[in-house]
Design brief:
Layout: H1 8-11, H2 34-43, H3 71-77, H4 88-101, E1 105-109, H5 112-123, E2 129-132, H6 137-145, E3 149-152, H7 173-183, E4 188-194, H8 207-220, E5 224-227, H9 231-241, H10 250-258, E6 263-267, E7 278-282, H11 285-298, H12 309-322, H13 325-344, E8 357-361, H14 362-365, H15 375-387, E9 392-394, H16 396-399, E10 415-419, H17 427-442, E11 450-454, E12 465-468
Parallel strand pairs: 2-3, 2-4, 4-5, 5-6
Antiparallel strand pairs: 1-7, 6-7, 8-10, 9-10, 11-12
Bound molecules: ligand P71.
The site of ligand P71 has 16 residues, from helix 5 and helix 6.
Length: 469
Amino acid sequence: MHDVPKTMGQQFGRRSWAEPWKIKMVEPLLQVSAEDRARALRAADYNTFLLKSEEVYIDLLTDSGTSAMSDRQWAGMMLGDEAYAGSRNFYRLEAAIQRSYGYRHILPTHQGRGAEHLLSRCAITPGQTIAGNMYFTTTRLHQELAGGTFVDVIVDAAHDTANRDPFKGNIDLDKLEALIAKVGAANIAYVSLAGTVNMAGGQPVSMANVKALRALCGRHGIRIFLDATRMAENAYFIQQREPGYASVPIAQIVREFCDQTDGAWMSGKKDNLVNIGGWLAVNDWTLYEELRNQIVIYEGLHTYGGMAGRDMEAMAIGIEECLQDSYMHSRVGQVQYLGELLTDWQIPIVQPVGGHAIFLDARAFYPHIPQHEFPAQTLAAELYLDSGIRAMERGVVSAGRNPATGDHYYPKLELTRLTIPRRVYTQAHMDVVAESVKMIFDRRGETRGLRMTYEPKYLRFFQAKFERL
Ligand code: P71
């Protein structure tokens, strides 16, 4: 006799929910044999960035540019106006951003880091400090290349994977005040605020926090620029967790949040549901003029900035779609589903589960592997070997080296990210992923770490090479 099977909803004492879409087109997945996986991983020098996509079964490397577009977006692609200047699609995109995020002046960029580059060049004077809620790899690098120094002022809870605070992305206002007292407000270029903090595990910032931040920065004349890459997902958490927002639509929460800031940059490859593209938006005309001047050097004319007309159209439509409550419920709900399974099996993951990914706590997974033997990189390798699932290291390899001392940065968080693409995989895929994680967890004691054999100078995680110890 076996127990009567139950749906997930029944197991958790609630009604099940489902995606607010059905599938119109499918792309076959390739199963790769264990032998081929072992060979492929060796050829990729134990770096999942160096695997060929054809060698991967379920690809959880990133949620960046991996979304499935809707039929409306594909239809929009056919309406591309590829004029060099003044494309109709630019004005549609501009209007979508102004309406949904509320900023005044808009510049398209080829992707998020194009926008980071321009903002860093124009808003940082060499020697200045940028305060932010945890670093992001490309963001910090552009700030450093512009002569700035990034200082992390996120709440301490963000560094503790077991702490279940609902808003672990918040800025610690006392840390920020202390920094202002130390370096002086004039030496702070801006606050670099990320909506859902990627490196902390996709953790959100509360509305109360951004409002208090606005008040503090207002007193000192410091600007706030928002990394809006996953701001819509942040708004979902505000709706779910912050008193007073349960019946406020996500679209309205995004506006209210953005209104506390002076501008934003965006990797459209995430929330905005496109495969390529980004944007930069500011309210201040003088700053905009300078950005508009620079964009023609590094990206393209200010009405396309590195994007094709058709891609701007798809992004304009994606902006509308990503702000729908039913979409966001299923999007974050799928991530939470995987998180619930792993949590029930007592597998160490960052809690609470964030918006775009499950972050496995590689330190807790492999307590016997010291950080300089790259536990999170090891975990990603093990997962691939077990099932062909591709994950991403987010630990000491990603953190890179301190440019002043040349030492590794040793981040407190040593994580392996299972990133869930938007509208791409089903609940059954999540089950397969969960079972593979469980499999490697059960044999974790036998796993050995890695040695780095090749290290690129910038953003080393992309191309670094390793061998098994
Ligand atoms: C992600 C990515 C893509 C990525 C970037 C660097 C290393 C590995 C993977 C990109 C982001 C992001 C945030 C919060 C800016 C960018 C850059 N994330 N801010 O998570 O998450 O945007 O990739 O469009 O240039 O896999 P870009």
